[in-house]
């Protein structure tokens, strides 16, 4: 509660770093009237509207978060995870004084590049293609710009596309917008506490005492834990003058929490991605109606 009280005096602390909507740039300038019959005053809100109606966002409702085809409707899919990232990004952007529309657009599109069976499926396809660099982060803007609208793409802004591509892994870099950094951290805050909720709570999967203690340091339930981490991020960001959650004592505890969770993930996911996906990939190859890898990515 003390951390949350401190954030009240920090409202708008990074507003001078907000990405203004007038600075947006379209990937294909000059075609707005043809591609976007209704030109919006806020182009980032326009990106959000396009993504909300996209096929790739629709598909997230049947894609794996941690558990594939969960029996309980309360266990998260990739779409539910996406909505939770949006929620956290909205609150953080509002407190910090950043562009909420841009943060929402990035958050909505950040995982549309995910393949079937989540990260396990991604690893299988990377090996099968002989492309170890293949990842959902890079695939997301490709789908948005090259696959959607029967190949015409959504014509999103550079800022939204960059935030989607750099939301995780080694692709995040200095110089990207503060809103992109917000989503980068919102993604981690969303999946870490929510996945624990599903794994240890709804699935009753046994976890170590150390992991349980580390979780409890952030609160007694998912809402308390997420709120505390968000408050810690706001305070550290205000001190450093940029979006950050790496250096504070709470950030160090969060990093350790992630390490403990990544010890659990491999034991929770039991499906053999290659056994499931190889026959489908072979069939798509024999079918010969298109690139079998691309077809599988879009499934």
Report on this model:
It is globular, with a radius of gyration of 20 Å. Helix 5 crosses helix 12 (222-240). The model has no long low-confidence stretch (mean pLDDT 93). It has helices at residues 2-7, 32-35, 43-52, 55-59, 78-96, 100-109, 118-129, 136-147, 158-165, 178-202, 209-216, 222-240, 249-268, 273-287, 292-297. It contains 15 helices and no strands. It is mainly α. The longest helix is centred in the middle third of the chain and has 25 residues, at 178-202.
What does this entry show, briefly?
This protein is mostly helical and 299 residues long.
Tally of individual helices = 15
Secondary-structure-based class equals mainly alpha
Q: What's the helical proportion of residues?
A: 55-70%
Number of strands: 0
End-to-end Cα distance, whole Å, is 44 Å
Q: Order of helices and strands, N to C?
A: HHHHHHHHHHHHHHH
Overall mean pLDDT stands at 93
Alpha carbon gyration radius: 20 Å
Overall form: globular
Hey, roughly how much beta strand do the residues contain? under 5%
Residue runs with pLDDT of under 50 for 5 or more positions: none
**Oligomeric composition of the shown chains:** single chain
- Sheet bearing the most strands, described? none
């Amino acid at each position: 509660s003390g951390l949350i009280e401190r954030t009240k005096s920090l409202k708008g602390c990074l507003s001078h770093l907000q990405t203004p909507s007038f600075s947006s740039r379209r990937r294909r300038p000059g075609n707005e009237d043809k591609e976007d019959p209704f030109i919006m005053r806020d182009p980032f809100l326009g990106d959000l509207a396009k993504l909300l109606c996209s096929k790739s966002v629709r598909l997230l409702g049947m894609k794996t978060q941690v558990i594939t085809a969960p029996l309980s409707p309360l266990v998260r899919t990739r779409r539910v995870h996406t909505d939770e990232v949006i929620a956290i990004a909205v609150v953080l952007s509002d407190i910090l004084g950043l562009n909420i529309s841009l943060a929402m657009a990035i958050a909505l599109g950040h995982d549309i590049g995910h393949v079937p069976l989540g990260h396990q499926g991604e690893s299988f396809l990377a090996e099968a293609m002989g492309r170890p660099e293949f990842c959902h982060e890079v695939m997301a803007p490709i789908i948005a710009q090259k696959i959607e609208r029967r190949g015409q793409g959504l014509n999103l802004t550079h800022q939204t596309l960059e935030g989607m591509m750099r939301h995780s892994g080694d692709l995040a870099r200095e110089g990207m917008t503060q809103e992109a950094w917000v989503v980068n951290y919102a993604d981690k805050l969303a999946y870490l506490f929510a996945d624990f909720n599903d794994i240890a709570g709804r699935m009753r999967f046994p976890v170590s005492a150390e992991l349980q203690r580390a979780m409890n340091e952030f609160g007694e339930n998912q809402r308390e834990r997420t709120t505390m981490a968000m408050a810690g991020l706001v305070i550290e960001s205000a001190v450093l003058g940029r979006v950050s959650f790496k250096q504070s004592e709470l950030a160090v505890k969060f990093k350790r929490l992630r390490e403990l969770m990544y010890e659990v993930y491999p034991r929770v996911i039991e499906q053999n991605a290659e056994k499931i996906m190889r026959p489908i990939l072979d069939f798509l190859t024999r079918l010969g109606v298109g690139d079998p890898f691309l077809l599988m990515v879009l499934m």
